Amino acid sequence: MGFVKAVDFLGGLLMVSLLVNSVVGIGVNWGTQATHRLPPATVVKLLKDNGIQKAKLFDADSAILNALKNSGIQVMVGIPNDMLSSMASTVKTAENWVAKNVSSHVSNGVDIRYVAVGNEPFLSTYNGSFLQTTYPALQNIQSALIKAGLSSQVKVTIPLNADVYGSSSEKPSDGDFRTDIKDLMVAIVKFLSDNGGSFTVNIYPFISLHNDPNFPVDFAFFDGYSAAINDNGKIYQNVLDANHDTLVWALQKNGFGNLSIIIGEIGWPTDGDKSATVELAQRFNQGFMSRFNAETGTPMRPGPMDVYLFSLIDEDHKSILPGNFERHWGIFYFDGSPKYQLKLGSNSNGLVPATNVRYLAKKWCVLSSSANLQDPQLAPSVSYACENGDCTSLGYGSSCENLDARGNISYAFNSYYQISNQLDSACRFPNLSAITDQDPSVENCKFRIMIQAESPANIGSGAGAGAGAGYLKKPHGLMMMVMMLLLSLTTMVL
């Protein structure tokens, strides 16, 4: 080709590269494991009203992707772990998935930038379930993107938990990949590097604090930590920087020190644990956003970061196996109302709530004033309500821990009643329950009114999707919490 055409061609390639790899604004994780979901169009408006420019999805929900059409929001679509085996089996399966969930939406105006192959598939708690399928699935999805002509626009990645690497000391410079998966990790990292992908890692200072009672609290935040780590002149005053740079060292030691890094999840929950409070969540997220907006970066990677906050909205149907806090990561409640003041950008005045949200009637299901706490039907009724509702705010250190026995029972009844769309039949616990129009909330313990659910036909196929009690599945880990609640009720009665 001629010189001018060659310059134009190279310039075009450069522009494509800049567009694909540019880091713009803050992102959020948009999860859908809720009994009642806000309409996708409402959530997209919520994103735009708050200046959020990127959304990370855990699947490829067509209703959500259609709502993101021409929104200007960059999207990461996900392939759930239970699909990795089929994606790894044949390239044709991956091609069909890309055609349906990427190509069709890109051509329809959805700005898809990444495909996330799996979600934390190498967690040690999975006992190696996805070790044989994740990398082949990644390769097949990349091949499918190439065949579809999208590989310059849409990149592949694997959101990984930070447990895939570690340090033999407290210093990041001693970091390397986990010995049992090191060869696999190096192969994946090389593949990502060769194909212009990024290393996506989920980092949770809250979990460090939750799992270790001796963990220094201030090290989880960004206010300065007096016992900072000095790693050959690089100073670490918070766990995020130390964790992130442990990864940087692991990449560097294996020959990929320049691979771009995405923080796929970072945040702080507001309920369900003594350390999961609105105050601490505001402290963490605002501290992080101030650093993000200042483009401080980390000692090993100063400058702008590519980040997705976890998460956008609370999900009342998530598994609570890791802890009751799992349902309370959102910076917004389930109805899109802000939990606390949070400035996402330098020009932000705080979070903007969702608009035009439709609620059920202002009525609650509570323990009847004439109910007998010795009634033999009480325990099974509370157990049923919690199994099919959400009692995670009743535990130790949670927002409703100070309720008395009657208050605990009322909270359980109301949760089930609201999730059941206020059906009269959902407040008919024998000789125990009654419907009231008087708000039973006590201080910070809110007896919330549910939003009107989307019809099942519009819910989509995302994990945990559903509308109302008829679509509920019993989440893992809930029975243990119910038994503890019933034990506490018995103690209070006695």
From TrEMBL:
It is a lipid-anchor; GPI-anchor. InterPro entries: GH, Glyco_hydro_17, Glyco_hydro_17_plant, X8. Gene3D superfamilies: 1.20.58.1040, Glycosidases. Its main location: membrane. One of its GO terms (biological process) is carbohydrate metabolic process. It comes from the Eukaryota. Keywords: Cell membrane, Disulfide bond, Glycoprotein, Glycosidase, GPI-anchor, Hydrolase, Lipoprotein, Membrane, Plant defense, Signal. It catalyses: Hydrolysis of (1->3)-beta-D-glucosidic linkages in (1->3)-beta-D-glucans. One of its GO terms (molecular function) is glucan endo-1,3-beta-D-glucosidase activity. It is found in: Cell membrane. Residues 363-447 form the X8 domain. Its EC number is 3.2.1.39. One of its GO terms (cellular component) is plasma membrane. Belongs to the glycosyl hydrolase 17 family. This is glucan endo-1,3-beta-D-glucosidase.
